[in-house]
Amino acid sequence: xxxxxxxxxxxxxxxxxxxxxxxxxxxxxxxxxxxxxxxxxxxxxxxxxxxxxxxxxxxxxxxxxxxxxxxxxxxxxxxxxxxxxxxxxxxxxxxxxxxxxxxxxxxxxxxxxxxxxxxxxxxxxxxxxxxxxxxxxxxxxxxxxxxxxxxxxxxxxxxxxxxxxxxxxxxxxxxxxxxxxxxxxxxxxxxxxxxxxxxxxxxxxxxxxxxxxxxxxxxxxxxxxxxxxxxxxxxxxxxxxxxxxxxxxxxxxxxxxxxxxxxxxxxxxxxxxxxxxxxxxxxxxxxxxxxxxxxxxxxxxxxxxxxxxxxxxxxxxxxxxxxxxxxxxxxxxxxxxxxxxxxxxxxxxxxxxxxxxxxxxxx
Length: 363
Prior knowledge:
This protein is of the alpha/beta class. It is built from 12 helices and 12 strands. The protein is globular and about 65 Å long.
């Protein structure tokens, strides 16, 4: 048996007719940038997340970058975040001229360890960026309480958590700003790069709309220096189609995770957990094992492709070594040597999950 880490062909086959009709409609309209499809998707995604505003942008990376920029965070400022994340989370801070300040992660959820935040706050701290990693929410209650106490912004990185909930609320709707990636492999993915910023702040939303479009409130008039970061009409219509299926697909992910949990019980593999206050949407199904590299090779020899999210923490990446950031993050560094992401997508078949689990048990 040969099992891909992600198989997007299966997704397309399920919704082929809807997707083809939607793209054809855009092609026949002759309008490809900042049009009705984007407006419709922004409205529908806002209703889904439970926010007033959605601003479609070029990517999840740009969503984070523009969120930091729109809040006026820059040179001399500090932003508290985690190192166990995709590098875009931290790049959003450094690209704006600010300094990332790292806290360690919780060893069970792999999200921000809220007990470490307060001791990292200084007079230069302007914001906190928690990451809802792998589909599990960060513990937002204490984060919001600390932010209120010290007058800090909260930017939620929800790039891996479309539809995940914290105490009944969709992630992305809790902080000042939420950022989403619609990279093709995400729970809600486009057919190319795409992203969005969400917020309930009218003024901030208007600034973000201008920032994504050259700082322009109307064509050829520019109030400040912005960028070209617009979610195009074809990607918007693809996302609009897929949004209708998102809850169903997330439930399939949760069932697959439950099957993995049951089949890997009584092994020396550490399986994911779901806190009582969380609804996990399993963007990734991440296990831990002390001999991770050998296990990964064993799976590959048996036709099973896996990935590691993430093998090198951001504070240890070559790009960040010359920034003078001296972070001691023992949990992050230990976890990065043990984690392994197993195949996880809604079209994974029961016999494939059983086969993967059998190969792991043999190891």
